[in-house]
Amino acid sequence: MKELKDQKLKKYFTQIPNYILESFSIWDREVYVQIKKIAGEDGICWTSQKTLAKQSGMSVNRLKESIKNLLLNKLIEKIGFRKVMTKGGPQKIPEYKIINIWEMNIKYYEDKKGVSSGDTPSMLTSAQKRSITEGVIGVAPDEHKEELYLIRTQISSLKRSKIIKSSEDG
Q1: For residue 66, what is the domain's CATH number?
Q2: What domain count does the chain have?
Q3: pLDDT tens, position by position, 119-157
Q4: SS3 of residue 48 by DSSP
Q5: Contact of 71 with 20, CB cutoff 8 Å
Q6: Which of 4, 111, 134, 140 lies 20 to 30 A from 160 at CA?
Q7: Which of 47, 79, 98 is the last residue of a domain?
């Protein structure tokens, strides 16, 4: 029964390896996310470049560059064309397969960050936690951590209650 529940929980979301998020341009990431979302559980995507460009928020020329990068980096594989019927008649649509990079994603973190696949965030040292986000543009070390947010929220709450208590006493 647990397996059935787990399958239902996977419905309507897409998992993206952190390696993709950290190692590629915003355009390449968006194209990868859209292809992976369309591909679903079977890992196969076919959609027109015009549609994929629109979903990715870019021009068809920019889309072609990103697809070239994804192919070159072996994140997707072109497996051919699929004939589809459109308002304008039959068309050949490129068909891509998502390459399973989960093991490579784990190895990337183990090699580069000094983290093993069995480590959980609570088991990591502060230095290891900082190294995971080090060099990622727009992410200050520890700024996005949930624990830090909770501590700041608690401090803010304590300050407010102290101010309220002081005004009641005075």
Answers
A1: 1.10.10.10
A2: 2
A3: 544 445 555 555 544 544 444 444 444 445 555 556 656
A4: coil
A5: no
A6: 140
A7: 98
